[in-house]
Amino acid sequence: TIDNLLNGTITSVLGATITAGTISATILGGTVSTTILGGTIDNLLNGTITSVLGATVTAGTLTTVGSVLGATITAGTISATILGGTVSTTILGGTIDNLLNGTITSVLGATITAGTLTTVGSVLGATITAGTISTTILGGTIDNLLNGTITSVLGATITAGTISATILGGTVSTTVLGGTIDNLLNGTITSLLGATITAGTLTTVGSVLGATITAGTISATILGGTVNTTILGGTITNLLNGTITSVLGATITAGTISATILGGTVSTTILGGTITNLLNG
Question: How far apart are CA 206 and CA 194, in angstroms?
Answer without folding.
Answer: 14
